[in-house]
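Re: duplicated header lines in exported structure tokens

Our pipeline writes sequence and tokens for each protein into one text file. With two proteins the header for the second block appears twice in some exports. Here is an export where it did not happen, for reference. First protein block:
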Amino acid sequence: MRLRPFLMGALIFGSFLSPCQAGLLHPLVVKTQKCLQNPENTTQDTVTCYVEAGKGWDKELNIVYQTLTHRMSPAAKASLKKAQETWLTFRDQQFKFFETYYGSMEGTIWASVAAQMKADVVKDRVMALYSILDSTDMSGETSKNYRFESDQ
């Protein structure tokens, strides 16, 4: 039957689609864009937008991590916990690097660049965990097919 190879191809191809490739923009992306689009923003306002985005991504990270661990075997859960602990060390080192590197630059814009980079590190981890959830969720409801980048 020729339909079977087609279905397998669709399933395999579909597994490569991440949440950022289909669906609605994630609400945190929308909130951050709205914050950043205020024409009266100062550099400090921009920093605040990214700091708040980082806090939001951190909350989202905890939610998706808990959702994922509830669906795992004890062995998989232990493995993810170890991976997450390693990632937290990586995150902390990245944050220190951003503070050192951008903090040594002249000009106020670099504080907003550092804040954006920090938020993006956490957002990237959220995307990775969503991808793991999506890879085993045949209903397609896990991430609501969120996109994490705008088309702008």
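Second protein block, exported in the same file:
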Amino acid sequence: MSDQITGINGRLSESRRASPAGPPYGVHPLSKKPTGADRGGSLQGDVAFAQVLQQQVVQGPKHVPKLQFSAHARQRLQQRSASFGPVELAKVEAAVERAVEKGGRESLILLKELALVVSVTNRTVITAVETDQTQQNVFTNIDSVVIA
């Protein structure tokens, strides 16, 4: 179909006129495919994205920090002279990974001698309590418990 037709007065006129509220008649607003310039990018940006994607596939995602301790948790561990070495750290990190897999957000992680409240989403130990002091305590705002 021709984009131009002859009007009554004999002049050529466009068959697709713009409507006041949108695109020209007969043209779907989503039918135009965006180009690099329309997306605000360029082909060079697309190449960089492809390179980054390939790098992620080959090397895997960047290292996610395993575990952080809030100032409050560090203070609690120091006050209580709790033994918290590399073995306990590895157990807590593994417990946080299990909580992530199950969709936990705020977890109580129970070790042999410590109970830790951990923000799973931030991978941060919020507070620490020795298990002999957990009698009669109530832990609130947690959605999961992991026994490590």
